[in-house]
Design goal:
127 residues; mainly alpha; 5 helices
């Protein structure tokens, strides 16, 4: 399976989330209906740094062969991240019935499935 598109799109998604969370945590919290306080804003900024780190990892790994045993730590880290966030968002969307949560849950679930296919299947040979 060719993974260049997967790595670029996941890097772009994580970079957008990371930049927003790092530099506008109060706005991110307000957008999601949470009353921003200093401790929560700090947590969101730290999560933004993690997302920027993952974005950089995925961007730098966009050209390597990923799948099966190749670059397994990259695939495993992304798979775990997208599965856990997807499950959390699905649970939140079912409780709060908010459309933005449902959209986010769908996006993260698609990436979870895509990284699952990459992780548990052998890579396709390059043309």
């Amino acid at each position: 399976m060719h993974t260049r598109i997967l790595m670029i799109s996941s890097a772009a998604l994580m970079a957008v989330i990371g930049l927003a969370a790092s530099f506008a945590p109060q706005e991110v919290l307000g957008l999601h209906g949470t009353v921003p306080d200093n401790a929560t804003a700090l947590f969101v900024q730290m999560a933004g740094a993690v997302y920027l780190g993952f974005a950089m990892l995925n961007w730098m790994a966009r050209g390597i062969l990923i799948g099966g045993i190749y670059a397994r730590p990259v695939a495993a880290g992304n798979f775990l991240h997208f599965v856990m966030v997807g499950i959390t968002l699905i649970k939140a969307a079912s409780v709060f019935r908010a459309v933005p949560l449902m959209i986010s849950a769908a996006v993260f679930s698609v990436f979870a499935i895509w990284f699952g296919l990459v992780m548990f299947r052998p890579p396709l040979p390059r043309d």
